[in-house]
Amino acid sequence: MLSHLRAYRKESILAPLFKMLEASFDLLVPLIMASIIDYGIAGGHKNYILRQCGILLLLAVIGLSCSITAQYFASKAAVGYATNLRSALFKHIQSLGFSEMDTLGTSTLITRMTSDINQVQNGLNLFLRLFLRSPFIVIGSLFMAFQINSAAALIFVVVIPVLCIAVFGIMLYTLPLYKRVQERLDHILGFTRENLTGARVIRAFGREAHETSRFEDVNRLLCRLQLKVGAISSLMNPVTYIIINIAIIAILYTGAVKVNTGSLQQGDVIALISYMGQILIELVKLANLIIQITKGVACAGRVQAVFQIRSAMDFPNIQSSNYRSESEEAVRFEQVSLTYKGAGENSLEGINFFANHGQVIGIIGGTGSGKSSLVNLIPRFYDATGGMVKIFGKPIKEYSREELRKRVGVVMQKAQLFQGTIRSNLLWGNENATEEALWKALTSAQAADFVRDKQQGLDHIVEQGGRNLSGGQRQRLTIARALVKNPDILILDDSTSALDYATDAALRKALADLTGKMTIFIVSQRTSSIRHADKILVLEDGRLEGSGTHEELLKTCEIYQEIYESQYRKGGE
User: Fold this and answer.
1) Does residue 565 share a domain with residue 501?
2) Is residue 314 part of a domain?
3) 539 or 234, higher pLDDT
4) 508 and 532 Cβ atoms separated by less than 8 Å
């Protein structure tokens, strides 16, 4: 992950250097104050006092300039690093297969890309500014105290370890709690996302009060944990100030005795107290820095865990080709089985069938019978755990990702459109498609009429997820998007469920009239949508229970007969 910081190597070096320069000026201030008291005020030298005040003002201006410059470089490095890291993480997520995405889950990926990377960014920013400055001030203050008076400096030798124990002891106790807070935050984000995506279902069942109560319970747990961490962390200030004040009393007592004996001057006592204050401030800063870095490292570990996940699919890196077998087969399944990661049993088992070029293949079965699982193997969204899938006579694993996506078009169960325009969504299929090709695809998908009715036509605005369109309109546009691609194999995964029977029939007729040898797979719950298919596959509990035409299955397949009769022969008709 640190490789993404290479582009900001210069900023990562300059930021701590400028902070060191600022710290050097800070260490000089108590000495100048001591000289003002011992020589200027004690001797009544007003000109000397003014000159020294001018030097203090100059040090303040230079120190401020160094601080601003350091902050600029640190911020540039941290924000730039986070930007590169977030881009790399998004790119990596896009390379993962469906199996890995199912395992990780959406909410945790969103948390890691946003909240976790922000924590890494904040930790890096503080690290570049303080990781040299704070130790330098502590050690420098101790050194300067010994230069002033060795006996009084022994108080520093005792106080610094005691302060470290107090500050870092509280920090070490709270670190595991901070990790739990981050985990709770992840959990509450997942709960919130679930409720927002399921808002319509919640309202349809009148469960608003119940879900609000559940959210309050989860939120209350997070609140209690944060209050506990805050209460323990709040002990740092009173404990450290008690130690510092005791140390200041010791310095004043020792200093008073030594001032009376003439071995120490009044200004030196003030300088020692100033150095003690600087040590306190820097130790508290260092503790906060370590807490932030620890949180950042924990979050970086969560991000790194995503980077370490590799897609189980290895696509060969070969040039695009138009390979076709000598036979007429477009797709062949040979004893294909599929078991999802973490699942206890097969979702598909022993599937055997073939589809020729230009055929329409219907797939039907009950809920959970494995229809979507079967068609998801054709574009290789998942890898078969048993048997072999062949496309155009060639094992599917021998195709490059680009070639496979080019030749197989998929319309998912859930119609997903992206923010933009109708045109920009259709161009996903082929970014070089002409306007004529777009309208041809819309006509085939039975979407041309409602697009023409829009005032802006193809340039009609599509909101995120296509929420300003009806379910049927979204489905027709996703079908048109796949047709713009002009694939060799088209998969319609129950993508006409929101269409009325007349539109569904017109769509099937338009697909049948398409020129070329496009092989079409239609997954549907309606026998009317697939009854004219060249071949119908009947699935039950992941097994292929029947294969043939509509007429053949009515005679030979009991499951198909039951589905057909439940839809067309209700009430004994």
Assistant:
1) yes
2) no
3) 539
4) yes
Contact yes or no for 52/40 (Cβ under 8 A): yes
The Cα–Cα gap between 17 and 110 comes to 36
Kindly state whether residues 430 and 491 are assigned to the same domain.
Answer: yes
Residue 433, φ and ψ in degrees, nearest 5: -65, 140
Is residue 213 classed exposed, middle or buried when 0-12, 13-18 and 19+ CB atoms within 10 A define those classes?
A: exposed
29 is written with which tokens?
A: 């201030």
Q: Note the pLDDT tens digit of each residue in 470-524.
A: 888 898 999 999 999 888 899 998 887 778 888 888 888 888 877 567 899 999 8
Evaluate whether 399 touches 321 at the Cβ level (below 8 Å).
no
Instruction: Report the SS3 class of residue 325.
Output: coil
Q: Please, where are the H alpha helices in 309-421?
A: 371-376, 401-407
Residue with the two structure tokens 């599509």: 462
Q: What is the pLDDT of residues 328-346, one digit of tens each?
A: 788 999 999 998 877 778 8
Q: Let me know if 6 is exposed, middle or buried by CB neighbors in 10 A (0-12, 13-18, 19+).
A: exposed
CA 163, CA 339: separation in Å to the nearest integer?
58
**Domain check: are 291 and 364 in the same one?**
no
* Whole-number Å distance between alpha carbons of 342 and 327: 38
Q: At what angle do helices 133-148 and 266-308 cross, to 10 degrees?
A: 160
pLDDT digits (tens, 9 = 90+) for 80-126: 999 999 999 999 988 887 878 877 777 778 888 888 899 899 989 98
The position carrying tokens 């004529």 is 436
Percent of the chain with pLDDT over 70: 97
- 217 and 98 within one domain: yes
pLDDT value at residue 424: 92
Which whole number is the average pLDDT over 167-184? 79
Q: Structural domain tally of the chain?
A: 2
> What local confidence, expressed as pLDDT, does residue 573 receive?
44
- Domain of 186 in residue numbering reads as 82-308
Where b means 16+ CB within 10 Å and e means fewer, 230-263 reads: eeebeebeebbeebbeebbebbeebbeebeeeee
Give the ranges where 445-500 is alpha helix by DSSP (H): 448-453, 471-484
Q: How confident is the model at residue 158 (pLDDT cuts 50, 70, 90)?
A: confident
pLDDT band at 321 (very low <50, low <70, confident <90, very high): low
Alpha-helix runs per DSSP H in 198-265: 199-204, 208-233, 236-261
Q: Are residues 123 and 185 in the same domain?
A: yes
Q: How many CA atoms lie within 13 A of 536 on its CB side?
A: 28
